[in-house]
Every structure is written in C-alpha cells, then in structure tokens.
TrEMBL record:
Protein species of origin: Streptomyces vastus
Superkingdom to which the source organism belongs: Bacteria
Pfam families listed in its UniProt record: TPR_9 (PF13371), Transglut_core2 (PF13369)
Every Protein SirB1 N-terminal domain range: 53-211
Name by which UniProt lists this protein: Transglutaminase-like domain-containing protein
Similarity comment: Belongs to the UPF0162 family.
Length: 295
C-alpha cells in the first residue's frame, strides 16, 4: 500500500479550522488532534472514520482489567493487553511509512512510531482510569505511570520507585531506571536528567508528531506536499518555533509558488531583524531571488 493521499481543498480547510479550534481549547484532546492530522494526510478519512477510531480506543480501554492497582500494575496490564493480546508494537520498517505517524492507521495496522504507539497507550489507559502521561525522552517517546516528578534533590533511583515508564514501541516493556539511562546515553551521549521524566504537554506531543512527518517528507523530495501541510498545521498551534515560517517559505519556493514564498521570507526577516539584522538581510536576499524567478 502506498502513502495516503490528501483531501481536497474544501475538506482540508474544514479540518484545519477544527484543528486550530481544538488546539486552542482549554483542554485540547490529543486523540482528536492526532486524528485531524490523519484527515489532512488521508482523504479517505472522514468524520465517521474519526468517530470509529475514538470508539476503537474506547473498546480497547473497556478490555483493560478494572483498576489494576499502582503504577507498576497499570503498566503491566497495558503491556499484556495492548502489546500482548492486541499486538501493538513497532519495528525499524515503521520509520519508512507515513502511516506510522497517523493514529487511525496505527489503530488499524497495530504498528507505528514510538510517539503514536504512546498516544494509543495514553488514550487507552486514560479512558480506563490510569494516571498516565507521555515522556519525551531524547530520541524515543515512552509513557509514564504514577507521580511524574521526584521530590527536590531525590536521586534517579528514588524517582523510579514511584514513576514507572513503559516503551510501547517494544510492546509496552516496563523500563527500569538503568534502561532509561542507557536509552538517553545512546541517543545523546549524556546522562539522564530527572527533568527529562516530566510529562509532555499534549500540544508538544502534536508538534513532535508533525516534526516526524516533516522528517519523513524531507527524505522524499517528491512529497513536498506532505511537508507543506505538516508545517501549516504546526503553525496553527498556539506556540510554535518562529523558524517554521522560514521553512514554509522555502517549501513554497520549492513548489514554484515564488511570490508567496518571497512574501513569507520578507515576513520572517521582519521577525528576525530586531535580534539579528545580518540574518534578516540574508533572508531578504532570498526573497529577492525568489521574486526574480517570476521573470
């Protein structure tokens, strides 16, 4: 199966309005935002399909044993249910598929990237009554159960006596403190800091998913359309890196929309100018070069 194809302009505009409204809600719904990313990627996904995905999350939650106990028991119960009986997990090949970043496809295929599998774990566990949250370890997203932070001055070993981490990409394997330390050391070469174990904000999770989609598209120049809508959705989030406007401008120029790209470059230069005038001048030069391509 090839990558999904995006919806038409009218439906895309409707999804983006919904996405922007949900992102600015008092309590943004992570599953809804992920499904709207899927709808922007896959023209075959409609509201009925999104409802079906939410119902599937409800169904999976209904199969979790009632109130398993403390954090360790919750993590074990989710691993046995989602990773074991249901077969949710990931593999190296999943990094090569756009579907691995789309929640409705992850629910269908039961395969995905660590962050999307973590979304499944979080949404199912939350519906079942667990205190659960995402943990954005460097290079690998996992889920946490129990108190998310240690007392002031506590050691990592003390932290792991309360907080339990699970790796959905590995079928929900419950991680020990040394497991997490080894994972972070392998990704960064630096030791694990307790601050890395804090809960990830839902909108930061969404931005990270969109960044993964952009990375997938960057390796496939023919799918610049995917990179562009991923940037557009990122810009709809209440908080996002200003650099995204520059990235969007570059994508527009690459797509041959030189005038729109030049306009975006000028706007980005205006943002940069107060802190780095030489950088702003370079961006303005790029804008002039883009306009010159119109001749």
């Amino acid at each position: 199966m090839g990558p999904p194809h995006p919806p038409g302009p009218e439906r895309s505009a409707a999804w983006r309005r919904w996405f922007a409204d949900e992102a600015r809600a008092e309590r943004p719904d992570l599953a809804t935002l992920c499904l709207l990313i899927g709808a922007e990627a896959d023209g075959a996904l409609d509201e009925a399909g999104m409802d079906a995905a939410q119902i599937e999350l409800d169904r999976l939650a209904g199969e979790v044993p009632f109130r398993p106990g403390g954090p360790q028991a919750w993590a074990t119960a989710l691993a046995e249910h989602l990773g074991g009986r249901c077969g949710f997990r990931g593999s190296a090949g999943d990094y090569q598929r756009l579907e691995s970043s789309l929640l409705h496809e992850v629910l269908r295929r039961r395969r995905g990237l660590p962050i999307l599998l973590s979304v499944v774990w979080m949404e199912v566990a939350r519906r079942a009554g667990a205190h659960v949250y995402g943990v954005a370890l460097p290079g690998h997203f996992v889920v946490g159960f129990g108190p998310p932070t240690a007392p002031q001055g506590a050691s990592l070993s003390a932290e792991f006596e309360e907080q339990i981490l699970a790796d959905p990409f590995d079928g929900g394997r419950v991680m020990t403190g040394p497991d997490a330390e080894l994972l972070v050391a392998g990704a960064t070469g630096a030791p694990l800091d307790p601050s890395m174990l804090t809960p990830a904000d839902p909108l930061d999770v969404v931005l990270r998913i969109l960044n993964n989609i952009r990375a997938w598209a960057a390796a496939r120049p023919e799918r610049g359309d995917v990179a562009l809508w991923a940037v557009d959705l990122s810009l709809l989030l209440p908080s996002h890196p200003a650099r995204l406007r520059y990235d969007r401008a570059q994508l527009l120029v690459q797509h041959g929309d030189f005038l729109a790209g030049a306009t975006e470059l000028d706007a980005y230069a205006d943002i940069v100018a107060p802190v780095d005038e030489p950088a702003a001048d370079r961006v303005r030069q790029q804008a002039r070069a883009a306009r010159a391509m119109l001749n």
